[in-house]
User: What shape does this take?
Amino acid sequence: MNGKWTVVDANLVTWILLAVVAFSFYQGIRRGASGSVKQLLLFLVGALVAVAAVIISALAASSVSPHLQSWLMERQLERPPADATFFAQFGYTALSGLRDLPLFRFAALFLVFHTIIRLLTGLATRILGTIVSFPFAIVPNGGAVNRSVGGIVGAALGTGRALLLTAVLFAYCALLPRGPMTDYIQQSGLYREIAAQVIRPATGNLIDERLPVFAQAMSGELDQLWQKRYDVIDAELPKEIAEAAVSVTKGKTNDEEKARALYDWVGSRIAYDDDKVKAYVDEGDWREQGPEQTFSTRKGVCIDYARLYAAMARAVGLDVRVVTGLGYDGRGGYGAHAWNEVYLKEQLRWVSLDSTWARTGNWFDSPGFTDTHIRQGGLTG
Assistant: This one.
């Protein structure tokens, strides 16, 4: 290897990589030639099968994903009633996530296919490795030559293991460039040499460029799935909220009139809770509250406005979402924020609304809404 590292590098990562090779070398001496070759071939066959399983699983998931989405859309999933069981609510949330989130759907399908493939190939891999290594079984055990060959093969196996460990560390550093231990890992001379001479040329820009992009996109979809927990948490609608929603929308003949009436009611009846924000900013004390508490106290912050609006909208049959992201703060910056989207069946479209800002102007399907609101993945409904 051509690099500026030495065996006396004090970095723990360097010594772990060397220890992997040294331990495999020791195991090779103890196993002898036949045992070491068998382990090496099992490792190589297993690695090839693992790569093949990943490729086949990815292709299968990509192929099946659009069909699964179409099938779920054809089912026309209906939100469970407020008195449905937890499992019914959870099932709806999971299925709607598979329907609406492409990366989550791909990941779920990939996991299913990969698990099935590995279960089917697990025994076959060991049998194939045993067959391929059978000729070496006739080599007598013991003796200096036999153990020397075993040590050499063991060292080769250890090198493969060290390369695999380095690839894992490389992926970790790519995903979390400012994460715990990232700087320390990259200070290892041996790690840097293997990464530069083997891992990066072998993977191109797959790990250090494309993997972080994929992980960021996946994180956004997981945020959306996490936000869908409100579908379960807020499913049980208190009687007084349902009655209030029906009263507010009485005489309204279409979805837009109902949605706007609820927007006006929530925006004018709920007061912004500055004390809750202050407690969180100053003390890190987040006071979680549901729609029932917001309704009874008439106080809350943006997420509380959005959850109450969603609960009331669902009570009168509207399809509504809770969205999280960033909202313009009026001083040139953006801060964490939450708002809603509601579906107008007559117009076949989703419209955005922000009841938290209702006192400052019209934020129901207003022009330029996206200029002041930046979605960051949070979306339920």
Notes: DSSP finds 14 helices and six strands in the chain. Residues 12-225 form one domain. The two ends are 55 Å apart (CA to CA). Residues 1-5 have pLDDT under 50 and may be disordered.
